[in-house]
Amino acid sequence: MRIGVIGIQGNVSEHVDALKRALFERNEQAEIVTIKHKGQVPTCDALVLPGGESTTLGKLLVKEGISDEIKAMHAAGMPIMGTCAGLILLAKEGDEQVRKTHQHLLGLMDIHVNRNAFGRQRESFETKIDLFFLETPYNAVFIRAPAITYAGKDVKVLGTLDNMIVAAEQGNLLALAFHPELTSDSRIHQYFLDKVFR
Predict the structure, then answer these.
(1) Which pLDDT tens digit goes with each residue over 10-32?
(2) How many structural domains compose the chain?
(3) Residue of 74, 104, 181, 189 marked active site
(4) Are the C-beta atoms of 115 and 54 separated by less than 8 Å?
């Protein structure tokens, strides 16, 4: 089993560490690799799109030839988790700011996003949120976070904050507006691993 973390930009090492911790806690093994070049994505069984700067990340995915590989592997059923900027990249459609910056979107998930839904009011904050698949609240870290403004009929809403969708899934896709890699609570990475080892 091999899990790739897109390593071009963003919270790469944090996701690698979080995945290793989650694997250790569930007593399972997988190789965690950082992906920087074309040809690496097809060697993986699952993928993480980390937070970072979504416009830059999108451009680099296209430039490195990784974008088309992600789309092909998604079509083949690969589990993919996108956090913050990764959520934006998974979306089919973005807000005016996304369009204005010619943001590249993978368009894999039937969601629309507001790129800076929480950013202008509060640059970053932590708050407890209820997630559909967890028994107790999760302490979520939001950093200039996006939000999902529309979810299609095949999208399952997993959590909201201030009446905005901040966690959702569609098939093997998991999209989060916050940063689970920045906490010691591994339950979200565990939930993703459930998809990987299914």
Answers:
(1) 789 999 999 999 999 999 999 99
(2) 1
(3) 181
(4) yes
Q: What is the DSSP letter of 155?
A: P
Q: Residue 21 is part of which domain span?
A: 2-196
Residue 179 annotated to the active site: yes
Q: What CATH number corresponds to the domain at position 166?
A: 3.40.50.880
For residue 28, the Cα-to-chain-centroid distance in whole angstroms is: 22
The 8-class DSSP code of residue 37 comes to S
pLDDT of residue 70: 95
Catalytic-role residue among 84, 112, 169, 189: 84
DSSP 8-class letter at 18: H
**84 is annotated as an active-site residue:** yes
Active site residue 44: no
Report the C-alpha gap between 1 and 28 in whole angstroms: 10
Q: Could you tell me if residue 152 is left (phi over 0), alpha (psi between -120 and 50 degrees) or otherwise beta?
A: beta
Which is catalytic among the residues 74, 104, 112, 179? 179
- Model-level pTM greater than 0.90? yes
User: What would the pLDDT profile of 154-181 be if each residue is shown by its tens digit?
Assistant: 999 999 999 999 999 999 999 999 999 9
